[in-house]
Structure formats: structure tokens, C-alpha cells
Design goal:
Elements lengths: L1 E5 L9 H10 L4 E10 L12 E20 L2 E11 L3 H15 L10 E5 L5 H9 L4 H8 L4 E4 L5 H8 L8 E7 L9 H12 L4 E2 L19 E7 L2 H15 L5 E7 L7 E3 L9 E8 L4 E3 L3 E8 L2 E7 L7 H5 L6 E9 L2 E11 L4 E4 L11 E2 L5 E2 L6 E2 L3 E4 L8 E3 L15 H6 L4
Parallel strand pairs: 2-4, 2-10, 11-12, 15-17
Antiparallel strand pairs: 1-3, 1-5, 2-3, 3-4, 3-10, 5-6, 7-9, 7-10, 8-9, 12-14, 12-16, 13-14, 14-15, 16-17, 17-23, 18-22, 19-20, 20-21
Helix pairs in contact: 3-5
The protein binds adenosine-5'-triphosphate.
Length: 434
């Protein structure tokens, strides 16, 4: 029986993933398959942080077992198959009591929603939840006769919960999340950087650390139950990384859970659509049609023609050194831009320079007889200082541009959960699912 939960946390407290940790640590049900952390529309205003919703399949398990976490020093296993479904209402009572206990009660923006269903939902709901703003009304109609659900306060969380059960999970990565509740004590910045360098040694991990910006990305903001989260495509590597971190840094945690996620998959990106709408995220190939400019605050923009649209590409200040890429573009460049669209601008997550336009430098021509450079005497008038011969046309020399025909992406410090790091592209292509 699938249990989905969303919207239990606030900006500075809790993390909905911890409710899953708590459910598992009570050991009342077997876990079937992987617990899932599903990121939804990154442009939703209600989100606390990364718009993540959670689900887990519970019951009596059967078949092969594999490690899915470690709690109080003991491995937690999940089963390959379901042998027996639990009673839906009893399960709802159990889950509700945990969510009621853990959710952040004094935050207006926290509106938990629990959905329990014997089946997963159609992929169309997942796709919609990545591109649009869905209403509670729509979801309640959708859930009628499909599932049981519980709303706490406005119950807005049932939207994310339902959408998480619609994730088909074809393209996926994993995240190992390590916990202590209510939260772990302080870890110095230098130690965080040292710990972040451990997963960085593995080819299968991503978004661990941003050394240029001195940012240990595996550590979330303090005061949530998450101590750190390591992302990767190989579960066994994540388990071994955890072991290495513990060996060297002795984190006094309660334990960890490995979630299957849609992080790093680009699932939010619609490719080359005819229409762009606010809240959507796209990959759009077009031609640069203006010169880049930077406004106060250090945000850079450049205009691009895409199908019938004239849009702006934006690299905001938090994207740091990535702004240099945008600022190197010139009219005529053909690029493939990835990011979310809002008010006429694509907020860039990455960009592929497909074809660079040629850039020329204009200079006074060299006199072919005397081999000396002519001198400009006004508009279309160049004279050789030796033989005094006149030339009308300037000489143009191609300038070497400081940019290559390849992908550029925002640094780890500015990376969105769903955005596929360039490093992962070969992995997904080899899975033949993109
Ligand atoms: P965290 O990542 O720490 O779990 P969060 O960023 O996921 O926090 P939530 O507290 O879960 O933030 O709030 C997100 C809210 O947005 C939830 O109520 C969820 O149901 C809702 N939501 C998610 N996707 C959509 C969507 N496409 N349309 C409307 N509401 C959505």
C-alpha cells in the first residue's frame, strides 16, 4: 500500500523526508521497493525549499531484500515484492499520528496532506505537477474512488503527495539522507568541506561541493533533522561513502535512509515546445539577437529569438561565474537554453552553445605594396603612410572567442534539484531513457 506525504515542514524546521525515517524506524510494516523523494514544479510559490514530496510502499514483503537504510546501527531492508497489503484505514491512522506529531504547527505555510493508495497514478499527473500550478479541488476530484487521503489544515500537501505517486520512476538517481532529530549540533564549515570531498571521489555522485564558491552542498541549512544528503546513481557507492564519512568524522546520527529520486533527471524540462507558459521549464534552441547586459545586483540578460518568441535568457547573481558564459554571447550565436520560464525570461540552468557566430575586429588595412599598416583619415578613407595610396575598405580579422561549442551549467551552489548535471548525461543516455 503506497503512502504519500507532503508539506509537513517550514523554512527552518523539519523535513518531510524525516516523517518517512520515523515511519520506518517504528518497524511496524515491511518496506517494498525504495522509498521515493519526488521533486515537483520548481516554480511553485508554496514550496518551502525544494518542492519535494515523499512516498513509501508498506505491507508484508516477499522476495529479495536489499539495504535501504541504517537505523540505530542496524541495516534496514526493503523487499522486492509485496506479499500482503495492510488495512488501508489502520495504516492511515498510524501514518496520521506520526505526521500530526511531527509537522510544524506554528507555520501558516505548512499544510500537510497524506494520500494512501493500493496503486500508483497515471504519469500525466506527474507531468502536470512539474509544469503547472494544480488546485486542491482538482486533486480531490482526481482522488475520488482512487485513494483515501487526509488533509491537515488546508491539506495542500495532498497535491504533492498525489503527484509523487504518479512518478513513473524510469529516470532516477538516489539520495542518502542522514538524520538526527530535532537537529544535529554545529559542524564547522571546514569540516563540512572535508566531508563533502569524500563523495566527490566517486564518479557516480553529483552536486557534493562547490570549491570555487566554498559551498559544501551535501549539508542543508541547519536546524532540520537532515545532517547531510549525498546524491548519486549507485546505491552501493552511497552506502560505502556513508561508511567512509563515519570512519573519519564519527557523526552521532540516528541513521540514514536511501531514497530513489527524480533529482538530476531534467524531468521538469519540456523540449522545444511551440508555446511557453509561466511556471513551465523548457529546453529551447534559438539565435541570440542582442548584446548581453547586466543590471544592478549583478543579474545578466541577453535576448534570444525562439520560434515566434523574443525571450530573454537570464543568469542571476547567485549563478556566480556562470554569468561570464552569458556575457560572452553575441548576436548570431545558436544556443540551446534550459531553465524555467517566467515573465518572458528563461532562468538558465544550463546552456549548450551549438554554433558560435564569428566575431571580427575592424582595423585599418595593410598596404599590399609597402606592407605597412594604413592610417585612418575619416570614414572609409585609409592612407598608406609610405606610398600615400588610398584604400576605402577596412580589414576584418576573426577574433578568438573565449567560449566553446559545448554545454555550460550553473555552479553547484546554484543548481536546482531536478536539473541534470552535465556529468550525468552519459549515464542517462546509456540507460536509453532520455
Ligand atoms: P521540502 O523540500 O523541504 O520538503 P518543499 O519545498 O517540498 O519542502 P512543501 O512544504 O512540501 O515544500 O510545500 C510544497 C507545496 O506545494 C505542497 O503543499 C505541495 O502539495 C504543493 N505543490 C507541489 N507541486 C505543486 C503543483 N504543481 N501545483 C500546486 N501545488 C503544488
Amino acid at each position: 500500500m503506497y503512502v504519500a506525504i507532503d508539506d509537513t515542514d517550514s523554512q527552518d524546521r523539519m523535513c518531510t523526508t524525516y516523517t518517512i525515517f520515523d515511519i520506518i524506524s517504528r518497524g511496524k510494516y515491511d518496506i517494498i521497493g525504495d522509498p521515493e523523494l519526488v521533486r515537483l514544479n520548481p516554480n511553485i510559490s508554496y514550496k518551502t525549499r525544494g518542492n519535494g514530496a515523499l512516498n513509501i510502499n508498506l505491507g508484508k514483503g516477499n522476495g529479495k531484500r536489499s539495504i535501504t537504510g541504517k537505523i540505530s546501527g542496524k541495516y534496514i531492508y526493503s523487499y522486492e515484492k509485496l506479499r500482503e497489503e495492510p488495512d488501508q484505514n489502520e495504516l492511515m491512522d498510524f501514518i496520521s499520528s506520526i505526521v500530526e506529531e511531527l509537522y510544524v504547527k506554528d507555520s501558516e505555510k505548512t499544510n500537510p496532506g497524506i494520500v494512501i493508495s493500493g496503486d500508483r497514478f497515471e504519469k500525466t499527473l506527474y507531468s502536470k505537477a512539474l509544469q503547472e500550478d494544480i488546485s486542491i479541488n482538482f486533486i480531490e476530484k482526481y482522488l475520488a474512488e482512487k485513494a483515501i487521503y487526509k488533509k491537515i489544515k488546508t491539506g495542500h500537501g495532498i497535491i504533492g503527495s498525489s503527484a509523487s505517486l504518479a512518478w513513473p520512476g524510469q529516470k532516477y538517481t538516489y539520495e542518502l539522507l542522514d538524520y538526527r532529530y530535532p537537529h544535529y549540533g554545529a559542524i564547522s564549515h571546514d569540516e563540512k568541506i572535508m566531508i563533502s570531498l569524500i563523495p566527490e571521489e566517486y564518479q557516480t555522485t553529483f552536486n557534493n561541493v562547490d570549491l570555487e564558491n566554498n559551498y559544501p552542498a551535501i549539508f542543508p541549512k541547519p536546524k532540520t533533522p537532515v545532517i547531510f544528503g549525498v546524491r548519486g546513481v549507485d546505491k552501493n557507492d552511497l552506502i560505502s561513502i556513508y561508511g567512509k564519512i563515519q570512519e573519519k568524522h564519527k557523526i552521532d546520527d540516528q541513521g540514514y535512509i536511501i531514497f530513489k529520486t527524480n533529482q538530476g533527471t531534467d524531468d521538469h524540462i519540456l523540449i522545444e515546445p511551440d508555446y511557453l507558459s509561466n511556471m513551465g521549464s523548457y529546453s529551447a534552441t534559438g539565435i541570440i539577437s542582442g548584446n548581453p547586459y547586466t543590471i544592478e545586483g549583478g543579474h545578466s540578460f541577453v535576448e534570444m529569438k525562439y520560434k515566434n518568441y523574443k525571450i530573454k535568457l537570464a543568469a542571476f547573481e547567485p549563478t556566480k561565474e556562470f554569468r561570464k558564459v552569458l556575457n560572452s554571447l553575441i548576436p548570431g550565436d545558436i544556443v540551446n537554453a534550459y531553465g524555467s520560464y517566467m515573465n518572458g525570461a528563461i532562468k538558465l540552468e544550463k546552456i549548450k552553445i551549438i554554433k558560435k557566430a564569428k566575431l571580427y575586429r575592424k582595423e585599418a588595412p595593410v598596404c599590399p605594396d609597402c606592407h605597412v599598416k594604413t592610417k585612418s583619415k575619416g570614414f572609409m578613407d585609409y592612407r598608406c603612410p609610405v606610398c600615400k595610396k588610398r584604400y576605402k575598405n577596412a580589414a576584418f580579422y576573426e577574433v578568438d572567442r573565449n567560449i566553446e561549442e559545448k554545454f555550460y551549467e550553473v555552479p553547484v551552489i546554484a543548481r536546482r534539484h531536478l536539473s541534470m548535471p552535465v556529468k550525468l548525461a552519459p549515464y542517462f543516455y546509456s540507460m536509453e531513457c532520455v
